[in-house]
Amino acid sequence: MLLQNSTNPYFPAPSEIFTSARSTLTWDWVSTSLKSSLTTLLGGYFIGAILGILLGAVIGSQEFLRAVFTPITNFIRSIPAVAKVPVIMALLGIGTASRICSVSVAVLFPVLMVTLRAVATTDEQLLDNARLMGYGTYRTIFSVRLPAATGQILAGLQAAVQVALFIMVISEMLGSGIGLGAFVIHSQQTFMIEDMWTGILILGALGLFLNEAFLILERRIAPWYFKSKEIR
Amino acid sequence: MKIGSISGYEVRVNGISMSFLNSDSEKVVLHDISFAVASGEVLAICGLSGVGKSTLLKLISGLSLPTAGQVQIDSVVVNGPHPGLGFVTQDYSRSLFPWLTVARNVALPFKALNVSQEEKAAKIKQVLISVGLEDSSHLFPWQLSGGMQQRVAIARALVTQPRLLLLDEPFASVDAHVRLELEDLIARLVDEHAVTTILVTHDIDEAIYMADRVITLSGSPAGIGMEFDVDLPRPREQIISRAEARFSQLRTDLYLGLRK
């Protein structure tokens, strides 16, 4: 409403953004920027999430591994995820691999920490049962500790969606020249303010969509968890 | 009807003591406890809450090891979780896996054993029938009432035909009516399987109703207070057995013994 008749160049009227979006939303644009962004985001997210869960499960279940790795992971985790992006670019260049890697690393740590803590605090009685049934270390981790940690891991995974999106944008802005983040920063620098807004709005829609998709997926992955807790 | 030809374990507890380190002070919970359980016998360990009954049961199972003395199962010294045990605890919600159906929960003890699929399926079916859950095998534990969940736990403890059944207040979390039902269920299954059974309970009526012999734990650190045989005829029946003069005599003795 406020912006309807805006003449401020930095805050164009929605109608202008929409017009600009129609001209920029060509198949080319979608297939390059969005595809690249989604590759970075989903690739990085899944790699980071799977590694985070596996490492968290193994480290969290063994007391000596916890003692060894906690100071190391705490240190690496304390470096802001954004600050790690230039390091990864220095190591891997500015291609797809380095963007995926940046997102993975950013997703890995929160997921690892949540999984580690959840797996380290499995109910003693479940563990007693596992020991009496003759379960070994491997079976106890994957058949008892991990499923028992479902709720906490899902919460960690959900928080990591936003982290992934954030790091995706940053890694694209930092010199890749490709993807939604690059499109936004390029539009801003070349004073294509309407295009910039288009990119921002698409990023917003993407974040919203991913969050909703996560809520649907998590109920498919662990239906028992939501039904047993009567979470709607 | 007896199932299988294997007999129950014989258990010997030889002078065990247990203490826990509490920051820097050592708290002795159990002191110099000795007793034996014959093959097929049902022993009740009775004591007030917090006396160390569950700790004693964990030591017998091998889940924890005593600071002194030893437990022998069929003359073998226990030094870790012992094979051939069934364990049922008070808190079914913490011992069943909520991510698995009833049938898959009951199947869990087979995972680390080498049993063919057909044998496994047959045994699961049989045990679910014997606890009256054959129609609930596809449900999840949280879809069942407390009494039914405890039946699942009992089925899981019995499915591999254990030779020693350890029961830690197994009826304490269900309501009074279900409790009597489960007592009779356990009594029947213990008889069918000819399994040695150790029942830990704070309930004196339950101890007498279920057991062939009762020992009490009392004091701090806890030791064995009294020990007596329950000379009530079997099979027992909730109304008739509990109405017998001998039952109330034993009940009085046990009550006074625990107060001492």
TrEMBL record, chain A:
SUPFAM superfamilies: MetI-like (SSF161098)
Subcellular location: Cell membrane
Gene3D superfamilies: MetI-like
TM regions (residue ranges): 38-60, 81-109, 163-185, 197-217
Gene Ontology CC annotation, any one: plasma membrane
GO BP of this protein: transmembrane transport
UniProt KW Cell membrane keyword: yes
Alphabetical keyword list: Cell membrane, Membrane, Transmembrane, Transmembrane helix, Transport
Every ABC transmembrane type-1 domain range: 34-218
Protein name, as recorded: Unannotated protein
Source organism phylogeny: unclassified sequences, metagenomes, ecological metagenomes
From TrEMBL, chain B:
PROSITE patterns membership: ABC_TRANSPORTER_1 (PS00211), ABC_TRANSPORTER_2 (PS50893)
Any Pfam family: ABC_tran
UniProt KW Cell wall biogenesis/degradation keyword: no
GO molecular function: ATP binding; ATP hydrolysis activity
InterPro entries to which the protein is assigned, alphabetical: AAA+_ATPase (IPR003593), ABC_transporter-like_ATP-bd (IPR003439), ABC_transporter-like_CS (IPR017871), ABC_transporter_ATP-bind (IPR050166), P-loop_NTPase (IPR027417)
Domain ABC transporter: 11-244
UniProt keyword annotation of Glycoprotein present: no
UniProt-recorded name of the protein: Unannotated protein
Lineage of origin: unclassified sequences, metagenomes, ecological metagenomes
